[in-house]
Amino acid sequence: MTSDVWHIVIVDDSPDDCAEARRMLLKGSDRRYAFTEAASGAAGIRAVQQYAAAQHRCIVLDYNLPDMTATAFVAAISGSEGTPDWPVVVFTGGDSAEASRSSLRAGAPTTSAKAG
Fold first, then answer.
1. CATH number for position 9
2. What residues are paired with 84 via a beta bridge?
3. Which of 16, 58, 72, 115 has the greatest CB tally within 10 Å of its CB?
4. Structural domains in the chain (count)
């Protein structure tokens, strides 16, 4: 097992979706994670700022947050070069091509996730 802890900030207003993101990351992994969850974009930005100095970090982000879109979130955390300093994965609730395009332009890959 690796001794490095990966700091994962999950930004989603659905507790079930947060739990599913944790489950997917933990499945079959021996990596150590420290999860921080945020139910809004503003809370997520504060969490990102809290772990800014962490060596290993990633953001798992819902596209539609109660107070902003993923595009606005990524813009808010982006560094001086206009791209986020963290790896960001954005999930959408459907096949929104525009959501995918705007997330990619902001610097975050997007994955569609449909409820079963």
1. 3.40.50.2300
2. 78
3. 58
4. 1
